[in-house]
Design a protein that fits this description.
It is a single chain. The protein is an all-alpha fold. It contains eight helices and no strands. The longest helix is centred in the middle third of the chain and has 27 residues. The structure holds fe (ii) ion (2 copies).
Length: 201
Amino acid sequence: MTEAAARTILRAPTPEAWVSSAVERWRELLVDHANCEKKAASTALALMFAYPEDHALTLALSRLAREELRHFEQVQRMMIMLGVAFERQQPGRYASGLRALLRTSEPGRKLDLLLSGALIEARSAERFRLLSGRLQQPLADFYRQLERSEARHFELYVNLAHTAARDRWQERLNVLAEAEAGLAIEPDPVFRFHSGPPAPP
Ligand SMILES: [Fe+2]
Ligand SMILES: [Fe+2]
């Protein structure tokens, strides 16, 4: 599966209003991006703790977690190089909005966690692609390289979801993808890497 395939699970493309704000506000976005990479590693670790009997899953996600931590280190180096100071930010609605939809009992919980991972990775790949065409160096090349990694992660999560529930994953994906698209395209009071475009003040 390629980055183009990653776009196919997204129900709506990122609006231009988000991209133009991101080009202007790249500094605060870089701080959020550093947090997203830590969160991606932490999500993978949480899945490893939740499903230790699934050896294929724990091996794949252990590798993924290490890669996300390397991304974090790269973002932090980029922040230092570009003179972007770390600032505490309030979280956006995207992750909590998605989490609220996930089922809490098995076997639905495992499938939902894997599908939400796939959607987050697919949205990340899409936004890195959009930004790599609009930002200056060195961010343009950096985001181009991250787009490829996140598209690979999307593919991994989809494969794990498919293995977890061969006959139910597509139907459940439709529900979660619809909600994800709403969170990513509707005007959002808090501007973040996965948010909607900024809401008018
Ligand atoms: Fe990453
Ligand atoms: Fe990722």
